[in-house]
Amino acid sequence: MQQEQRKIIHIDMDAFYASVEQRDNPALKGQPVVVGGERERGVIAAASYEARKYGVRSAMSSALARRKCPNLVFVRPHFDKYKEVSQQIREIFFEYTDLVEPLSLDEAFLDVTHAKKGKPSATLIAKEIKARIKEVTNLTASAGVSYCKFLAKVASDVNKPDGIFVITPDKAEEFLEQLEVKKFFGIGRVTAEKLNKQGIYTGADLKKMSQQELVRQFGKSGSYYFNIVRGLDDRPVMPSRERKSLGAENTFFTDYTETEDLKAQLLKIEDEVWRRLQRSQTYGRTLTLKIKFADFEQITRSRTRFELYRSKESIHEVAIELLMNEAPFVKGIRLLGLTISNFPHEEKGPVQLTIEF
């Protein structure tokens, strides 16, 4: 019996954080806006399309972004607001299907093979969803439509911003053969460069490599590359994802060596971790401290308990102990982070299935 052809949509909000800030502050419209810290060691969380024209991208250092665009407008992030908008968008998705797999606050896969409402066409459903998002949030989204997750993800990036692109089964082979390997979802920059050095620039080039050769060079990922270049991806849309860890970290403007300074900084991070634990109603048994030194050496120290970390005091007690076990600090510390993990299945809170989208 032939398997039913899936109808998958990938929705990706356009420059989400920056667009929310431009929407809420008319003075920012048309300006090269970035969301992130302006300090020397800050990192760009999102860049408006006006900023991207200068080569500014997310995950870029604030210093480099400033050099690329001297008139860059920095805006501090407002994550509570982004999550609120993201929740509005998720509710729109659920109008059409319960099979929603969030990838982050601003993107998700939807399986609309058996949609709750709308036309039988996935393309028309994607257009309806884009229109609903615009109506409810006054923001734009781009959509990719295809029969599998990989192609839907790649398609959503083709006509950004505020675009839609459809890859039907009969057009998949031609599309993939012409696609640059650096644009394949799942092939990172380093892998793309390695392939380029071998003369492999497009899907057509990649298709000439045997599965054995790809596995030899890239391990298990090689089989994934072998399949996706042929349009083979049977991964289902997974509406429930289990959180494996929850944490927070902070990169400091100044390197710290004094324990009192570090304790004060760690306390701020503890507050944020506790706030996130309470919001998700998820508690774990392992606390991990991450320390990054001024020379970028990084270490982690963990403590697993039989009891769950269910109080702010328990987190503070162990976090300070882990920190002081490494004192004195000869080298300056540029970053501290705390992560809670090892969540017992039976202890998960009721919002576990909807993880922050």
UniProtKB/TrEMBL annotation:
Domain UmuC per the UniProt entry, residue ranges: 8-188
Entry keyword set: Cytoplasm, DNA damage, DNA repair, DNA replication, DNA-binding, DNA-directed DNA polymerase, Magnesium, Metal-binding, Mutator protein, Nucleotidyltransferase, Transferase
Species of the source: Mangrovibacterium diazotrophicum
PROSITE patterns per the UniProt record, alphabetical: UMUC
Gene (name only): dinB
GO-annotated cellular components: cytosol
Annotated localization: Cytoplasm
Entry annotated with the keyword DNA repair: yes
Pfam families registered for this protein in UniProt: IMS (PF00817), IMS_C (PF11799), IMS_HHH_1 (PF21999)
Catalyses which reaction(s): DNA(n) + a 2'-deoxyribonucleoside 5'-triphosphate = DNA(n+1) + diphosphate
GO MF annotations, alphabetized: damaged DNA binding; DNA-directed DNA polymerase activity; magnesium ion binding
Active site: E107
Textual note on the cofactor: Binds 2 magnesium ions per subunit.
Residues reported to bind Mg(2+): D12, D106
Assembly notes: Monomer.
GO biological process: DNA repair; DNA-templated DNA replication; error-prone translesion synthesis; SOS response
Acetylation among keywords: no
Protein family: Belongs to the DNA polymerase type-Y family.
Residues carrying the site annotation Substrate discrimination: Y17
Protein name stated in the entry: DNA polymerase IV
